Amino acid sequence: MPAPVDSNSPAFWWDRQFHLLNSTGEGPRKSDGRDQFHLDAPQLGSMNRLDPWPTWMEAVWPDPDTGVIFGWYHREHFGVCKGSNLSVPQIGAAVSYDGGHAWIDMGAVIASGDPIDCASQNGYFAGGTGDVSVVLDRDKNYFYFFFGVYGGPLEGQGLGIARMPFASRYSQNGAVMKFHDGAWTEPGLRGRITPIFPAKVAWQQPNTDAFWGPAIHWNTYLEQYVMLLNHACCSTGFPQEGIYVSFSKNPGDPAAWSKPKKILQDTGWYPQAIGLERNSTDRSAGRIARLYIYGHSRWEIVFRRPDEPPDEQPQMPTGWIPQPVVLSAPPSVR
User: Fold this and answer.
1) In Å, how far are 39, 146, 250, 306, 327 from 197, measured between CA atoms?
2) DSSP H or E segment with residue 29
3) Which DSSP symbol is given to 99?
């Protein structure tokens, strides 16, 4: 990736080129090239924002039949707490008809209904939901949204999940439903939520202990989904205790995700994998992928099936980093 970034960096193939979106709050900057290793300098795109607040484009899905690109962003509303820089994030949708240069803002699709808490001590948020990753299931029935929940009662904080019918992609407002108490019954806007990985200590506290900022891809080698996670613990300012991984064969079953397992210690925010094969992106990867953290890649990430011998290591390409991160999928994943 060409520059430090402040969110997930979605990628897509369009017009036979690899395209990467980086964001630092002013909107998406797009880099183009023949692959992830050969990208032009990022160029700031345009968006007819429905409100003026800082925006980070964090997930995309390009329609292979029409070329239309759907995007989902994290947007932070400031000025909610007098005399404070705390903000309240929400998740919105956008669409591009020109390969990701210009975006049409479709408005918020996921927002918290909990009161703003200006006494929050995490250093950034007075509540809200954000830091989103979006995947389409293999049968193209639903888009699944995974995101951080930063306010409200403790039992509703942690890593949330919502879904939207594939058929609703051109009209998303009101189509997203949150998972709550075993069913997809709560509206994306101001509805309640049951997190799949609950926070242990609330985000309002200075010693919060919670997962956030997921990045999810379908792994063609494991034939299941892989979720990389940030873990904040246990002081103010979103300190990165470590980077974790979880696996599932069914993104729509909140109970199917394996218990998060630490893979790296305190290396920065926003871990994500980008596959090496042609047409691979941050949404798909094979046995070996590049592992990006805060927009830079210093590792390969190597996936191993549960039945592989522990001492069997893949042959790494010449000139690459010699110590890959090796992840084994647990055999219990459904």
Assistant:
1) 36, 11, 16, 23, 20
2) strand 28-35
3) S
Mean pLDDT per block of 10 residues along the chain (334 residues) reads 73 94 89 95 90 94 95 96 96 96 96 96 96 97 98 97 98 97 97 98 96 97 95 91 94 94 87 93 94 87 81 47 53 45
Q: Which two tokens stand for residue 165?
A: 């019918």
The predicted structure's pLDDT at residue 316: 46
**Buried b or exposed e, range 262-273, using 16+ CB within 10 angstroms:** ebbeeebbbbbb
What are 274's strand-pairing partners? 290
Both tokens of 324, joined, read: 């890959």
User: What does the block give as tokens for 57?
Assistant: 């484009």
Nearest Cα to Cα of residue 242 among 271, 204, 285, 215: 271
Residue with tokens 């939520």: 193
Task: Say how far apart CA 213 and CA 269 lie, in whole Å.
Answer: 8
Identity of residue 196? I
The C-alpha torsion from 124 through 127 and 128 to 134, rounded to 10°, is: 60
CA-CA distance, 148 to 42, in Å (whole number)? 27
Q: CA 41 to CA 185: how far, in whole Å? A: 44
**Which tokens hold the place of 25?**
């709050």
Contact 100, 21 (CB under 8 A): yes
